[in-house]
Task: structure prediction
Amino acid sequence: MNFILLIFLFLSELMCREPAVSGQFYPSNKHELSKVIDFYLSRVNLEQTVEGQILGLIVPHAGYMFSGQVAAYGFKYLSLYNLDNPIIILIGQSHYYFLEKPSVYTKSNFKTPFGEVELEKNFISQLANYKNIFTTEVQPHIPEHSLEVELPFLQHIFSNFTIVPILVSSYDYKKSYQIAQNLFQTIKNYPTKRPIIIICSTDLSHYPKYSDAIQADYQTIDLIKTFDPIKFYQELPKIQKQPIDNFACAICAETAVGITLLLTQLLSGNEVKLLNYSNSGNIPTYGDKSRVVGYASIALIKKNISKENIQMDTKKNEFTISEQNQKVLLNLARKTINEYLTTKKILDFKTTDPELLQPAAVFVTLNKNNQLRGCIGTTVSKEPLYQAVINMSIAAATEDPRFSPLTKQELEKTRIEISILSPMKKISSVQEIKENIHGVVVRRGFNSGLFLPQVWQQLPKKELFLSELCYGKAGLGPNAWKDPKTELYVFTVFSFEEH
Result:
């Protein structure tokens, strides 16, 4: 009996997730399906040039008769980037089950009339390890259409791709941020050169009359275009509470959109582009303008920002150091770490150079394969510059609680960066904080946190930068920076690194 059960379980792992809405939301015949998608794509009117890096799309998930043309704008735009074998993170609302935690599907390939779509199993298994954040419930995925309807479009524009299917329910900002942060860390640490794209599946307003839908939908679209996740969570309920007849919701997958905004901002997204909007009332014959559903295709993009300009702005500060001594300090940091990892002794270094003897607050950052491997520093100028570099180098390599101690083998692949801080200046308003120039310290009671100016490259919006500083570093609420009881300090940095 146990043997039969094992065989059944083994076979169930090999079985595909069968389509739930083939023949309803889209044609079940692959030739007819291909003709329908070709028809929609042929009617897309977009410029054939793209800018920056595509990070994600927000696209509708209704039946193709109603939302297929709008969805085609998103997928046509995605195709212009000519991506090779992307990993697609599909995120949508669970319509049939309430989920305490997001459900990531782990079992088998998804099937459509075009064939099977493979899971990106290594990525999925890493998410599944965050058991306090994700669940691996299978059942919510079986009847769900929100992810399935995006697959034929993806199969049509890509010859190869894999998927990470995730369903969510309605969560608040704090929980959504935790989910986005876990996805971000998994993406950043995932060992691949393949592009990773987030596809968020949602429709907009449900069931108001045609004119009310247009008004409400553009309010929602404008809110998304602010690329401000905190504002999105705060303002969307106000749109929803408007006295509009038959207004069931402003957006059906509000949490999926919120997580997508958070995640793409963590990935340095800096532009939202509306590609197309329409609603079901515009559909000939079948459209009912007394009761409509809204649809939009929206791209989330990382436009190129000149790193040289950022570095030039960052160096407009109160401290500089000669190129010769930059090399001396970087060499000192490497020798210090190597000596400590070899003998557990602190390197003996002497100097009479006045530039190296002046007191300084220093951070030492270690990066391995373009990923953070350790960062420790001090905000107080209490010892000579060279001594601070020695002490912080050892601390970054061995004492950062986020990482295991660095090994000698890793040191060879690790790049060292040194940041020298100006004195702290207390400010009375966040308006005094200059993006890409200021580092920021937040303090409230016994809680404090610090971000170097380099963090602006990952969190380019001031609101997200401060929210992550409060929540992720200081252990405060994400909006603590708005509270007058929270102290804010700014500083500038002179930084240099190995090449």
In short: The chain is about 35% helix and 20% strand.
